[in-house]
Amino acid sequence: MFDINKITRENVKRLKPYSSARDEFNGVAEVSLDANENPFGFGLNRYPDGTLGDLKEAMAKYRNVEIPRLIFGNGSDELIDLLIRAFCEPGRDKLMIFPPTFGMYKVAADVNDVEVIKEPLTDDFQINLSKLQPKLLDENLKIIFLCSPNNPTGNCINKDTILSITAAFSGLVVVDEAYIDFGGESLVSENISNLFILQTFSKSMGLAGARLGIGFGSSEVISVLNKIKPPYNINSLTQEKAIDVLNRPELIKKQVEILIEERTKMEQALKDLPSVRRIYPSHANFLLVAFEDAQKTYAYLMSKGIVVRDRSSQVSDTLRITIGTPSENQRLIAALKEEEYQEKGRIGRCVRTTSETKIKIEVNLDDTSNTSISTGVAFFDHMLDQIARHGALGLHVEVEGDIEIDTHHTIEDTALALGTAFNDALKDRKGIERYGFLLPMDDCLSQVAIDFGGRPWIEWDATFKATHVGEMPTEMVYHFFKSFSDTARCNLNIKATGDNDHHKIESIFKAFARAIRMAVRKDDSGVMPSTKGVL
Ligand SMILES: *Cc1c(COP(=O)(O)O)cnc(C)c1O
User: Fold this and answer.
1) pTM of the entire structure?
2) Is 439 exposed, middle or buried, given 0-12, 13-18 or 19+ CB atoms closer than 10 A?
3) Mutation pick for ligand 1 pocket among 203, 205, 238, 322 (CB with most ligand atoms within 8 Å)
């Protein structure tokens, strides 16, 4: 069905390729006086090896393919252009792309005066095959470009879909696998005459500066491309460096592994930011992330000296974030957290799921406007509400616990999660008062002193006569504060006297809240509240 003569441009068919004396001379020349080179120079006075013999050999071994299936370009960009110049007649032929996708296919088509048919990807960024099928019959459609893993969406296009397209289409199907080493299954080992694979040294191989793209195709397609390719398109430095890298497969693998690991970490960190609406699953070395207001976040990051790619024109309200070194990624996350802090206050969160409890907590140290508490234990809800109210905090607590068995897990796990959320909200604890104290309240005398100095400790001096107040066991009051001090990393010193257990407990919670309120207050100094310089 695929006939190379049917898709090759007329002038290309007639063309005689450029030939040099070195093509005619097979062997090692003793005297080279054929190419008007300067015999002196600076170590690069000879033309590069136009046959790319060593590079092809190294690549054939690396990807386990045959040498005649290989072609190299000055970046994938040059190969994209070569494909169009070989197979699409300007002003008449067409190529097809699946937006949102890589921009170079259309740029190269426009340069060559070749019409672009756009078939948008579905909502889950796949190709709708049945809708596509009739369009494959257009006899002026010569090349289909698809990208998998796709840029900027990051996902892979279904392999069976790609193979069905190659079977149904009589032109050339180009699959751009620029990101294949970061995820997905390569098609390079498929021997299909109208399938052409693009890869690059710019991403997983870390040689973007060298400009080196790779094409894998059937030998008949490669022969046509070789006819029109500039004879010395890959310079000596690039050849040398690329061979060097290909000979260190373990190192490439290691670097790719780190980036994949960092991608997962970045995903985890981003997912907890409220400004992040959605993170698209990625098989590439970047994440496409939808933000509440992508333009604003983009501009904010710029102001912090961090440049990401705004892809909102392709997928609404998205930024494409390349995975960098661990410290670069941390800088990005820290900047995004700070943005949120500037806008909405110091927010801390904890999501905790065990077989006994499912807990979601968010605490905002600077915004009291929002509080909702639901643990299933009414008296405990009432106590947590004291913390929010008297602590001047925003507090969301959502707990599903095994309270039909006992309230023990619910109370203790909530305390642990609340402490973790506080620890998160306090960040590096710079610029806080650190200490909080409280003195007598109501009929009971409750004293709670707190130190957010970073070390967990509890001193406890309170006893209760009743076993329960409401459904809450009074023994759990101590456990609550102990657990909180462990995860919030604070020192608590609590004393209470009085007769009525309900009042006593409530006054401890109130005093605790007041102490927190004082301790987390910002002093605007921005300095670490410790002579040691760290907490
Ligand atoms: C980065 C990228 C390339 C690489 O292009 P080069 O010219 O080889 O640097 C190719 N295709 C896609 C989809 C890319 O994102």
Assistant:
1) 0.73
2) exposed
3) 203
Which atom of ligand 1 lies nearest, measured to the CA of 102? 13
To test the pocket of ligand 1, the residue of 79, 151, 197, 323 to mutate (highest count of ligand atoms within 8 Å of its CB) is 151
Q: Is the Cβ–Cβ distance between 215 and 225 less than 8 Å?
A: yes
- From the CB of 318, is ligand 1 less than 6 Å away? no
Query: Three-class SS of residue 95?
Result: strand
Ramachandran angles phi, psi of 445, nearest 5°: -105, 110
Residue minimizing CA distance to atom 11 of ligand 1: 178
Q: Look at 120-124, 287-291, 394-398, 445-449 and tell me which has the smallest mean pLDDT.
A: 445-449
3-state secondary structure of 441: coil
- The residue nearest atom 12 of ligand 1, judged by CA position, is 178
Least confident piece of the model among 296-310, 383-397, 515-529: 515-529
Nearest to 360 by CA among 349, 344, 376, 348: 349
Q: What count of other Cβ atoms lies within 10 Å of the Cβ of residue 112? A: 17
CA dihedral 179, 184, 189, 193 (to 10 degrees): -80
